[in-house]
Write a structure and sequence with these properties.
The complex is a heterodimer. Chain A has 2 domains: 179 residues, P-loop containing nucleotide triphosphate hydrolases (Rossmann fold, 3-Layer(aba) Sandwich); 282 residues, Rossmann fold, CATH 3.40.50. Helix content of chain A is 34%, strand content 27%. Chain A has an 8-stranded mixed β-sheet with strand order 16-17-18-13-19-20-23-22, with helices on both faces. A 6-stranded mixed β-sheet of chain A has the order 6-7-8-3-9-10, sandwiched between helices. Chain A has a 5-stranded antiparallel β-sheet with strand order 15-14-11-12-21. In chain A, strand 22 and strand 23 form a beta hairpin. In chain A, helix 3 crosses helix 4, helix 7 crosses helix 20 and helix 15 crosses helix 16. The longest helix of chain A has 18 residues. The radius of gyration of chain A is 26 Å and the shape is globular. In chain A, 46% of the residues are buried. By secondary structure, chain B is mostly helical. In chain B, 71% of the residues lie in helices and 0% in strands. Chain B contains 11 helices and no strands. In chain B, helix 9 runs antiparallel to helix 11. The chains are: A alpha/beta, B mainly alpha. Chains A and B meet through helix 13 and helix 14 of A and helix 8 and helix 9 of B.
Amino acid sequence: MSQHKSPILDVQDLSISVKTDAGEKSVVRNFAYHVNAQETLCIAGESGSGKSISSLAIMGLLPKTSARVSSGKAILDGTDLLQLPEQQMQHIRGNDIAMIFQEPMTSLNPVMTIGDQLREVLRFHKSMQGAAANKHALEMLEAVRLSEAKKRLDQYPHELSGGMRQRVMIAMSLLCSPKVLIADEPTTALDVTIQAQVLTLMKELQREFDTGLILITHDMGVVAEMADRVLVVNQGEMVEMGDVNSIFHAPKASYTQKLISDLPKLGSMAGIEPTPTAKVGQTTIPVLDVQDLTVRFDIAGGLLQRTIKRVHAVEKVSFQLQAGETLSLVGESGCGKSTTGRALLNLVDWQGRIYVEGEDLRISHKRNQLAARRKIQMIFQDPYASLNPRKTVGELVQEPLVIHKIGNDIEQKEKTAQLFERVGLDPIHLTRYPHEFSGGQRQRVCIARALALNPRVIVADESVSALDVTVQAQVLDLLAELQDELGLSYVFISHDMAVVEKVSHRVGVMYMGQIVEIGARDKVFENPQHAYTKSLLAAVPIPDPKKRKKRSLISGLEIPSPVHELSFKPTLLKLVEVEQNHFVAI
Amino acid sequence: MSVLKQLLARPLALFGFLIVSITAIFALFAPWLTPFAPEAQMFDGLTIEGAPLPPNAQFWLGTDLLGRDLFSRLVYGAQTSLIIGIVANGVAVSLGAFVGIVAGFFRGWIGTILMRFTDLMMAFPALLLAIVLAAIFKPSLWIVALVIAMVNWVQVARVIFAQTVSLSERDFIVAERSIGASSPRILFHHILPHMVPTLLVWSTLGIATTVLLEATLSYLGIGVQPPIPSWGNIIFENQTYFTSAPWLVFVPGGAIVLLALGFNLIGDALRDILDPTLKGKS
């Protein structure tokens, strides 16, 4: 690589503090790092580590009213960026140093075409206009391998998919060939196959444009794929800095060691047979039997709000779930896995048949909706969003008992405290509000809430995706414990193959609303048959820098849209048993 | 009580509280606090030429064009203005909130009917509507309050509707459904509390507009009927004398501004105090 080169960006002794009601709080303490041309420095850390705010400081983008740099330098070409007035900084941002943000959805201006946004950068920094600007913008879109680049110039951001938008963001950031590119979680919001493409692209472009890349991420898999050097940060402190191989294979700091060991690794369960914790004497009736589940949403439009198009979210999905078993549904966004989960909770209109312990869910919902609800509960993805911020957690955990009129107030309060303790929280904190808890604790609150009604099945919809790795491991352990203890069955919905491998007994892979492969976990993971399963597995970043994959630069391979004309008849896939307990669509 | 205590601990809120309390005391004890009857036209209340008197030892805030004591009228006017402000605005905000929240939550045909009706009301010139309503009913203090409420609820409904729609899409509402919460429970237990900040702002801001609308109606002769004083009709009765007797307009005008400010300061503080998501933030 190019370690011998002198650093292009040198950050020295950077400290940042934010203003709070209780005075100034230091959030970044004495960060020091540098990045060379063509080199990738990964700043890895969990939420609250100061990894993002330190890069915002370098860009001069700290919110002026609430945060300030208390000490330090960021030297680019001999000038200290932190001392520059805003006027001069405007010329450096986007020109010498550029940034890519996490959310491609919100970091492009929705009312300007892609072309206008690219040309604006060129006009401002390079005084380039007209045909020349247009040509350069087009070249850049081609450089990021955006399909049909010419057409894209006239399109608006909403007409592009997430992966395409992130490509546009990258194109925009590279327009002026910056010396340093800061990418803040650039692929976190993307699906894993798209993530693989974007990462490969960034690497390629870095070489082409001779850029130093600072990649900020929480995902150690991404770190292993991308980094030359790694800086591990935690709670505003630098923990460890070193070469990527030494960080992964000989971490010195105990925090780094924990970070690496808590990492769910694909292949960690290889050769271990999945054994559900079914209890003796249990009947053979499956807890959940789903037959030909279909969910379609109508899209109304036109003057009379008639149905004009239809989303085929789930098409004839069938599966069974035994007591004490975990079935994972995996797939990328829009594949229908979440909708399947919501249908099980009767939160969307569905067709087909669902039997819960042999009872038809539709009939039991008609007879007694509350009683039917008790058997299946759900844990949502975002514990920040799925708890009402204006209620205390005590009220929230007790609420299911109140609604279902189980016991009197004193008994309910007792049960609430027990549940709280069961999920590893202190009942003293029952009077607190959700925002006073950390992400992992909030997810525990959600679990307590789901458990309140003694359900048989819990649908966990991306329930650990929003959590930091160490917290994620703890929550997964809790779920496993509860399964052993209560014989719970889980429908575990996730896009994270490594987590899925860790938790499930059986796995169903969904694509375009249908299951393309389903079977015992070891069989699906070790002997994937369907092309989609294979590509999904291949796209997962492996948290081991020695096992970096050679990837080809496929341009814009996207999942097709599930929105169809009304006359559309879906082609139904037929599942064939390739080996015992392993079905694949042909 | 702890809310009141927290309220009084904030200097700005305390100031607002004082303004509102003083106005309320004036309104309640008007007969004992005023030196003259509000309708009494005093012979010595006018100059020989028949012009109103500026503030002096006998008439603290001067007299109006009919020789009535402005201070007494202002104190009695506080009764009218407070009742109009609180009743009219209260009705408007409650009605608007109810319509908005129901339409936003259920949407479908209920929502369509309610919101189209709201739009219809909005498209109507407010004053014309008020004139029609006031002409149908015999003007009295309460009728005026209701007429004002009928005109003012639509904006509240629009704002609350938009907020409810976005709130209903949030995950925690889906989570409530998944534990079996009924629609009324979700509506009143989980969505309504989120509307508190908006409603407080509307309630406090609305008082000023309400008092002014009452003044407009009085001016057109369909508001509170003279000789009963209200802050609004004091201004409008005397506005022709604006250049020669400015106190007749500035004093009641200032009273309206102060009262609105008072309610506003209280509302602002209440919004923070009643927001549990700010609790424990450090």
